[in-house]
Design a protein that fits this description.
- This protein has about 270 residues and is α/β, with parallel strands linked by helices.
- It has a single domain, classed as 3-Layer(aba) Sandwich (Glutaconate Coenzyme A-transferase).
- Helices cover about 30% and strands about 20% of the residues.
- The strands form 2 sheets. Strands 1, 2, 3, 4, 8, 9, 10, 11 and 12 form a 9-stranded mixed sheet that branches. A 3-stranded antiparallel sheet has the order 5-7-6, covered by helices on one side.
- Helix 3 crosses helix 4.
- The longest helix is centred in the middle third of the chain and has 13 residues.
- The model has no long low-confidence stretch (mean pLDDT about 95).
């Protein structure tokens, strides 16, 4: 008996995200992010979202630029390359339109690890001397095994949804990624609901050939969809590199306008 297909359209997938939801986004900076998904959030006028990602850039910036974001939990945020900081995101935080819970990448991952393991917190090293712990109210605990050392405890993070972009998917929702998983493995295990967009739809037999490349097994996935160039204008190596000219055009777009950029997106071409 074949498994029931989990394939739906991108529009149908995004329609399941309610206003006010928390969403963990896959990838890192301009690489293998679910950027077509983010643009569809904007097209469907989603609002008051909480975005969770250790190293966002284009994704958080365009969502803030569109007014879709209420709160962010993130580590380093930058457009990468020659583009510097994420300007729309920075303005949104500085103006108070977006609330920021600032993390180091490792502390955000620690929170996701706690969420994935079903425990209330995760110990983490390397925070001593930083103001981040005080600002966020993170607690310290003495070593119960007698070393007298203290360690900070990062509260569990469990996004309502996680969305990743994979190189290959099948109809059952299995997802294969070539190269670095970035932060996706732990995030997909921490989220309450998991969506996957895939660059290419393949037969399930392909996953049986090298099962070790399956980043996410289909039983974890609620829905999947094929989205060609779904990481545009970012990269999906070895399929395509970052489109730096397009990123520059996006950065240079006057004011809050993103209409021309959105109209050039591959998923908008029909």
């Amino acid at each position: 008996m074949s498994a029931k297909s989990k394939l739906i359209s991108l529009a149908e997938m995004v329609a399941q995200i309610p206003d006010g939801a928390s969403i963990g986004l896959g990838g890192s900076f301009l690489h293998r992010g679910p950027f077509a998904f983010c643009r569809e959030l904007i097209r469907q006028d989603k609002r008051d979202l909480e975005i969770i990602k250790a190293s966002p850039g284009y994704d958080i910036d365009i969502l803030c630029r569109a007014g879709a974001v209420r709160r962010v939990r993130a580590g380093i945020v930058a457009m990468e390359g020659n583009f510097g900081l994420a300007g729309a995101y920075r303005k949104a935080v500085e103006s108070g339109r977006v609330e920021l819970e600032e993390h180091a990448c490792m502390t955000l991952v620690a929170g996701l690890r706690a969420g994935s393991a079903g425990v209330p917190f995760q110990p983490v090293g390397g925070v001593h001397g930083s103001q981040i712990a005080k600002i966020n109210g993170w607690k310290k605990m003495a070593d119960p095994y007698g070393s007298n050392e203290e360690t900070y405890l990062i509260p569990a993070i469990r996004p309502d949804f996680a969305v990743i972009h994979a190189h290959e998917i099948d109809a059952a929702g299995n997802a294969r990624v070539y190269g670095s998983p970035h932060w996706d493995r732990v995030m997909t295990r921490a989220a309450k609901t998991l969506f996957v967009t895939g660059e290419k739809l393949v037969e399930t037999d392909r996953f049986r050939e090298q099962p070790e490349l399956t980043l996410v097994p289909g039983f974890m996935v609620k829905a999947a969809c094929e989205v060609r160039q779904g990481a545009w204008p970012g990269s999906l190596e070895p399929e395509y590199p970052v489109n730096y000219a397009e990123v520059q055009d996006y950065v240079d777009e006057p004011g809050a306008g993103i209409e021309r950029h959105m109209s050039r997106a591959p998923e908008a071409q029909g």
